[in-house]
Known about the structure:
Layout: H1 2-24, H2 29-47, H3 59-70, H4 76-82, H5 88-110, H6 112-144, H7 155-184, E1 185-187, H8 190-200, E2 225-227
Antiparallel strand pairs: 1-2
Helix pairs in contact: 1-6, 1-7, 2-5, 2-7, 6-7
Amino acid sequence: xxxxxxxANDQRKVIYQQRFELLSAQDISQxxxxxxxxxxxxxxxxxxxxxxxxxxxxxxGLEKQIQLDFNLNLNVRSWLESETQLxxxxxxxxxxxxxxxxxxxxxxxxxxxxxxxxxxGIMLQTLDAHWKDHxxxxxxxxxxxxxxxxxQKNPTQEFxxxxxxxxxxxxxxxxxxxxxxxxxxxxxxPEMIAQTHMDLSAPQLHxxxxxxxxxxxxxxxxxxxxxxxxxxxxxxxxxAPKVGRNDPCDCGSGxxxxxCHGRLL
Length: 265
């Protein structure tokens, strides 16, 4: 039982540290840019496998997912037909450029200061919501893990393995949901602002760790922006094999996973 608690506490420390850094940061726009690049890369390769033939590309699926989760209508098929020099990497860069251009236009519309506040507030809310769901999933998995003993598997080792996989998925899903929500924010009407103030009066998730503060302190001020997120995002699916937190990151940076793509900021 103690080893199970140790695993949960290790994950809690990582999340609390990331949250503390987020609360302390004045500007996370550079982190937003890096996360956007990572999310686009993984989304792209869900529909266009690495080093694959064009006949294997699911362009229609890619266009649909981008429109659904990021509110961008990109005619990727038309690009490929009109720009025959496009290949896997240049196409991915063209899509990323479209994401950046749309975000830059959105920032010009709502103002840089409001966008900086939105980035921080949305990341806090996304982190809190997904962490709460993760804790519930961990509890559910922990309750059933003892059954693995009947299949001649070590329940403790099974718990450690699955909890790490769940934690990696948690970080991936936070990144995906965060970029998705940011892509959908828009200037709020007076009616929307009034509704936002009403919503903020509802009970919020609070952390009791001494190094962090309640979620409401990172909320976007004045309800100036909101997300047009009527459709729930699809879970972030990592195509590459999972790596340990102390293993080299598979992006090729040379850093450990926990210091590279295993971080949010």
